[in-house]
């Protein structure tokens, strides 16, 4: 009995220690192009896989035959263990232009200047974007420990159709000769320089052969079409000027019905006009909202007009 007790006391600590030391299926991964090893045992590629005892081990990474990293790794007492130890390269992106957004493989990383730490031995696509300039993309290869400098020189976005369109319903205000408001539309496209087209139409007077007494009330037919250039002077102000053609006809109400018709005598003169029209004005833009104030001149008469609409 004493002999068995003595043997138990001698071997129990050893058995306890052995029970605490277990093997783990360990897997270490580094960047493609590097070699990785554990405790001086190296693999021939970027993956090292072996059953190791739990505890502290030394992981060694080589690149081009030279040791570039040596790190102590604690392998836990679990059935399997995987550890990634990437080797990265750096890309320094700068730009003389403000607010340039940098994308890596479609993912936004921030605004230049920026330092990107990227996985080594990988091909990536850098894309630079600023709404005032043409987007630019380039493909580069990042090797481990690279320090690459990129200066994104964007070109001014001068594509002719990369402009903002606008649509503004118009109102031509009454004048001494035109007693009713007339309505129309102004539309165009502009960036720094653009063009516009404007049309106003309102016809109420009709010709009739009926004879009768006049009430003295008048109505006016008015139409105008103009187009020209628009210039962005300073945000949010745009000035425009153009030429076109317009006409005005005056009619008188016949007693007993609502017809208006052309008639001329000493008491009822006709103020008809049909001539070249000159158009001027200003447009103000605030985001997608726009408004304009302008005037059209036909012979000696000025017709004020204004509108509110959208710009996109």
List keywords for this structure.
single chain; about 300 residues; mainly beta; eight-stranded antiparallel barrel; four-stranded antiparallel β-sheet; 1 helix; 23 strands; rod-shaped
If you had to describe this structure to a student in words, what would you say it looks like?
The chain is mainly beta. The protein contains one helix and 23 strands. Strand 5 (55-63) and strand 6 (66-75) form a beta hairpin. The relative contact order is 0.10. The model is unreliable at 14-19 (pLDDT under 50).
Overall spatial form: rod-shaped
Radius of gyration: 42 Å
> Got a strand count?
23
Whole-number average pLDDT?
84
**Element string (H = helix, E = strand):** HEEEEEEEEEEEEEEEEEEEEEEE
Give a short account of the largest sheet: 8 strands, antiparallel, barrel
DSSP helix fraction? under 10%
Individual helix count: 1
Q: If strands are numbered along the chain, what order do they take across the biggest sheet? A: 15-16-17-18-19-21-22-23
What distance lies between the first and last C-alpha atoms, to the nearest angstrom? 98 Å
Low-pLDDT sequence parts: 14-19
Q: Name the structural class.
A: mainly beta
Amount of beta strand: over 45%
How is this fold's topology laid out?
Layout: H1 2-20, E1 23-29, E2 35-38, E3 41-42, E4 47-53, E5 55-63, E6 66-75, E7 80-84, E8 88-94, E9 101-104, E10 107-111, E11 114-119, E12 122-129, E13 136-142, E14 147-151, E15 164-172, E16 182-190, E17 193-202, E18 214-234, E19 237-254, E20 260-261, E21 273-286, E22 289-298, E23 301-311
Parallel strand pairs: 1-7, 8-14
Antiparallel strand pairs: 1-4, 2-3, 2-5, 5-6, 8-11, 9-10, 9-12, 12-13, 15-16, 15-23, 16-17, 17-18, 18-19, 19-20, 19-21, 21-22, 22-23
């Amino acid at each position: 009995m004493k002999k068995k007790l003595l043997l138990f006391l001698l071997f129990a600590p050893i058995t306890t220690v052995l029970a605490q030391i277990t093997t783990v299926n360990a897997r270490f991964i580094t960047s493609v192009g590097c070699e990785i090893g554990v405790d001086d045992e190296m693999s021939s590629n970027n993956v090292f896989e072996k059953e190791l005892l739990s505890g502290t081990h030394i992981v060694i990474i080589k690149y081009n035959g030279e040791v570039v990293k040596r790190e102590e790794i604690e392998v836990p007492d679990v059935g399997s263990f995987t550890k990634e130890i990437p080797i990265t390269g750096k890309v320094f992106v700068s730009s003389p232009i403000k607010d340039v957004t940098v994308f890596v493989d479609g993912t936004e990383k921030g605004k230049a200047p920026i330092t990107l730490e990227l996985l080594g031995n990988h091909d990536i696509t850098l894309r630079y974007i600023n709404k005032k300039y043409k987007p630019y993309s380039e493909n580069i290869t990042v090797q481990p420990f690279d320090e690459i400098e990129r200066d994104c020189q964007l070109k001014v976005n001068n594509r002719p159709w990369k402009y903002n369109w606008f649509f503004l319903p118009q109102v031509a205000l009454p004048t001494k000769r035109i007693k009713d408001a007339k309505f129309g539309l102004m539309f165009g496209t502009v960036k720094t320089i653009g063009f516009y087209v404007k049309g106003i139409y309102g016809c109420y007077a009709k010709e009739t052969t009926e004879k009768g007494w006049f009430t003295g009330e008048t109505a006016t037919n008015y139409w105008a079409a103009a187009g020209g250039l628009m210039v962005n002077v300073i945000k949010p102000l745009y000035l425009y000027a153009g030429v076109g053609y317009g006409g005005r006809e005056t009619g008188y109400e016949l007693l007993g019905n609502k017809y208006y018709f052309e008639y001329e005598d000493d008491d009822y003169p006709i103020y008809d006009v049909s001539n070249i029209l000159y158009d001027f004005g200003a447009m103000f833009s605030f985001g997608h909202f726009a408004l304009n104030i302008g005037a059209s001149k036909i012979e000696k008469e000025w017709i004020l007009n204004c509108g509110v609409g959208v710009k996109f």
